[in-house]
Design goal:
heterodimer, A: 251 residues, alpha+beta, Gyrase A, domain 2, Cyclophilin, 2 domains, 7-stranded mixed beta sheet, 4-stranded antiparallel beta sheet, 6 helices, 25% helix, elongated, B: 308 residues, 7-stranded mixed barrel, 6-stranded antiparallel beta sheet, PxpC (chain B), nucleotide-binding (chain B), hydrolase activity (chain B)
Chain lengths: 251, 308
């Protein structure tokens, strides 16, 4: 990501590229930009409501919207024009959101247990970064994270950005089993694994929340454009919250 | 309850329907039959809705016993189907009585057979679909993404009278071959790949790797040069051909993850993806370019034919 304030002032230029017979990729530059998630979330809503007759699905990620459309109802040229118009009409309100007090309402507070029993890589992270375990926890709970994308698995939210001192690469050998709720870090990204799965991120803690439940509304606690802050909890509290949300003890 | 009792689950047998629509922004894969054309044919033989749930039987080894009477249809690859030991030709519908045993053996040609029943299999839908997506743990017999296995019960309607048995005319049967050409619509990071890479792509042969699955078809051949630089993850549409650092392309299919960050050449024509679904590991695969407009025209014809 560019750090200079001038990088935040202007909306990156929109380009289109084909993504098969029934999808079109809208791209706003190629670098992570903290102003984009909010913008993309708004634009996505507008497209889904204004072009509902021809657009079936819109998948947001970092700098792109993947627009699934019905090619029998619209020509690609006309669709690109309509999407450009909607994009131009969507406000680019690029005050860095973390400094915007009105946005604090949508801040989601997420408890994380950083106890070694549920943070198998804490020591390895400490060795790799040269930080103490307390500093690591402080570093991870300090920022307000943006939800840049949801993907990889149902409810897996890509959060950014992890402060520079805590940025470390993925594991050389991915784990075959990461328990649900595990909180991982990889480069500038952090995320909670919604369910048991394989995974290659360093595990820093575990969240007692349910991150994906097809029976509940909404199915995931977060959407692209939301903001998250983690706060530390003790192991006992983690166990109690886990039992409350999952109806059973953690594995 | 009426339906079929599963005697043998086989290599990989899955309930599939048109798929889970509208949840990709939450990371939920769509799912659906890999050879959608064969699945639609099976439903059409029975006058089912195109969205009716069918069984996708991969590589055979599957056996069921009918617990009620109904019409069924079998399409896709020929997996040496027998009923009560009698060999049966695929691509037709027929009457099944209580106690009949349907057994799918090893592939004679093709790789995936589709079994439809009158009205479709009546398992419990999850997020509007019965499609089984193992990696999302959604759909299937118990709703948690499991494959069909021994002892499962596959519910469906009981018919009081026998329907009309039908057969698909020879000229409509899709070509099933272990040597196919995939039409590719350039897109995504097409300009990041060099002219030389494109030339290599059009001229070389690939083999379908045995690690292929419903998420992606992995190809093996002389490695393609990979563009330098990091790409942020973006939405991955059906048939996207991504090239990871080892230069061996992966074609993203129905169980693909919603997002991916490897550079992509473009997407294959879905009609060719259906042929790919009938390829066994080791099949020979080539690429050929196609314009978006031409590809859309072919898809229009296909969709109109099935009334989709």
């Amino acid at each position: 990501m560019k750090d200079g304030p001038e990088a935040l002032l202007e909306r990156p230029e929109l380009t289109f590229t084909a993504a098969g017979v029934d999808a079109l990729l809208m791209q706003f530059g190629r670098t992570m930009n903290p102003c984009l998630p909010d913008f993309l979330a708004q634009l996505r809503e507008t497209i889904l409501s204004d072009l509902s007759s021809v657009v079936l699905e819109v998948v947001p990620a970092y700098t792109t919207l993947l627009v699934y459309y019905e090619p029998r109802l619209v020509r690609i040229f006309d669709l690109e024009q309509a999407l450009t118009q909607l994009s131009d009409a969507t406000p680019w309100a690029c005050t860095p959101w973390s400094g915007d007090p009105e946005k604090n309402e949508s801040l989601i507070q997420v408890p994380v247990c950083y106890d070694r029993r549920v943070a198998p890589d804490l020591q390895a992270i400490s060795e790799a970064t040269g930080m103490s375990e307390d500093d690591i926890i402080k570093c991870h709970t300090d920022p307000i994270y943006q939800v840049y994308a949801l993907g990889f698995a149902p409810g897996f939210a890509y959060l950014g950005e992890v402060p520079k001192p805590l940025q470390i690469p993925r594991l050389a050998e991915p784990r075959t089993h990461v328990p649900a709720g595990s909180v991982g870090i990889a480069g500038a990204q952090t995320a909670v694994y919604p369910d048991d799965s394989p995974g290659g991120w360093h595990l820093i803690g575990r969240s007692p929340f349910r991150w994906f439940d097809p029976q509940s509304t909404p199915m995931t606690p977060v959407q692209v454009g939301d903001r998250i802050r983690f706060y530390g909890i003790e192991y006992d509290e983690f166990e109690a919250l886990w039992s409350k949300h999952h109806g059973e003890k953690p594995e | 309850m009426t339906g079929f009792r599963v005697l043998k689950g086989g290599i990989l047998t899955l309930i599939q329907d048109i798929g889970r629509l509208g949840y990709q922004h939450l990371g939920v894969s769509r799912g659906g039959p890999l050879d959608a054309q064969s699945a639609y044919w099976a439903n059409r033989l029975l006058d089912n809705e195109p969205s009716a749930a069918v069984l996708e039987i991969t590589a055979g080894g599957f056996e069921v016993e009918a617990q009620s009477q109904t019409m069924v249809a079998v399409t896709g690859g020929d997996l040496n189907l027998t009923i009560n030991g009698e060999p049966q030709a695929p691509w037709r519908s027929f009457w099944v009585r209580q106690g009949d045993r349907l057994k799918f053996g090893t592939p004679r040609y093709g790789f995936r057979a589709y079994l439809a029943v009158s009205g479709g299999f009546q398992t419990e839908p999850v997020l509007g679909s019965r499609a089984t997506v193992a990696r999302d743990k959604l759909g299937g017999v118990n709703g948690h993404g499991e494959a069909v296995r021994e002892g499962d019960y596959l519910p469906c309607k009981h018919l009081t009278s026998e329907g009309i048995a039908r057969q698909i005319p020879q000229r409509y049967l899709p070509q099933i071959s272990q040597q196919i050409t995939l039409h590719l619509i350039p897109g995504y990071q097409q300009h990041e790949f060099s002219k030389g890479t494109w030339q290599q792509l059009w001229n070389q042969e690939f083999k379908l790797d045995h690690q292929s699955n419903r998420q992606g078809a992995r190809l093996q051949g002389k490695a393609l040069p990979v563009p330098a630089g990091e790409f942020l993850s973006e939405g991955v549409s059906y048939g996207a051909v991504q090239v990871p650092p080892n230069g061996q392309p992966i074609i993203m299919l129905d169980d693909r993850q919603s997002l991916g960050g490897y550079p992509k050449l473009g997407n294959i024509l879905p009609l060719d993806g259906f042929k790919l679904a009938q390829c066994a590991p080791g099949a020979v695969i080539r690429f050929q370019p196609i314009h978006l407009a031409a590809a859309q025209q072919q898809m229009r014809r296909y969709l109109r034919f099935f009334g989709l």
